[in-house]
Amino acid sequence: MKLFALVLLLVAPATALLPDLLEKLWPEQNEGVFDGVARIPYLDLLNDNSYIDPFLLQSMKKYGYFYVVDVPEYSASLEQDIMKQFYDLDEDVKDEIAIRRHNPANKNAYRGYCPGLDDVENTLQYKNLYNIGPHETRAASFESDDILEKLRYDCQEPNVWPETGNCTFDKVFKETFQAGFEIRRNVGRAFIRSIARAMEYPNLPALFSEDEFSAMGLRKYPIRRKINSNMYSDFDGTLLRELEHIDSTVTVLSTFNNDGLEVLYKNQYRAVPVTGENSFIVNIGKLVDDLIDNKVPSVRHRVAEVDFDRYSITYFLGPQFDADISRSVSGKLTDAGQKYTIFGEWIKDYLGAIELFYY
């Protein structure tokens, strides 16, 4: 913390602001494992206040994540309440906006509602998902033998919104999550700008100038009624709700004060403090880590089993479709670059592998 304070003295416009800034970035110090995780005010991040850059970078390097706090005109409890109302709808209502794997009458393969897997008691990945993207409309269909051109078109799937017969609910649902999507996209892009400044990678933001395949997933993990061997961690035997994994791109996460999230820190999984009423958790995945020369860790994380229906929202910001991911910003060959040149090629195989796009 003394190092952080020294940096603040160097970058703050007036040293008289030091106590206020320390209280803003670290409001509580209880000698907890993650007390040093930076809490970056949303407006300071969004407005490119450079004083945040060293704290954000230090937090990412040491812990693998940071918090975005004090988000104006945002309410996590409102989002969670509306999510619960959505998931309480009759299945036939939700099925009307289900992706084509579950409702062949629908054209969308990704944007829309995805019910939990059939083996609800045994699979570790049992969850319900409603996926939202950046597009509300799409151009007329076209014929092409070029698989990347087809994918470029498919990436622009328009959102589908619930039509319940309750006009008030439908309007509130759509407006709330359109606004939530925009807030999270702002966070993801501002994070990239901050990292670019802190690491002196001025060309990094250009890779994210478009976000054809950014995605926001409204997730519900229902209570499990049975336990089986697939639900235990190979790492330490803990009973899990969500597999241990590393993300791929930039992640902006809302946990809605729900316990369960754990990150691997110093070779031990530790509980992440909840995000609070108007805040987010931000981390990066392997693909983005490679683009910045593996100087910031893509943290491994999981969700431990809990005894309640668990809700969360994950937003993923990836590079633009034509972004060159074969080389890092300093010119080094990336892991992805051994097989792919542009992000569009990578996303095609990635989504096929996780069965979210091509079925």
From TrEMBL:
Domain Fe2OG dioxygenase: from-to ranges: 219-319
The UniProt record lists the keyword Acyltransferase: no
UniProt cross-references to Gene3D superfamilies, sorted A to Z: B-lactam Antibiotic, Isopenicillin N Synthase, Chain
InterPro entries linked to this entry: IPNS-like_FE2OG_OXY (IPR044861), IPNS-like_sf (IPR027443), Iron_ascorbate_oxido_reductase (IPR050231), Oxoglu/Fe-dep_dioxygenase_dom (IPR005123)
Domain of life: Eukaryota
Pfam families in alphabetical order: 2OG-FeII_Oxy
GO molecular-function terms, A-Z: metal ion binding; oxidoreductase activity
Keywords: Iron, Metal-binding, Oxidoreductase, Signal
Assigned protein family: Belongs to the iron/ascorbate-dependent oxidoreductase family.
Protein name: Putative isopenicillin-n-synthase
Organism: Bolinopsis infundibulum
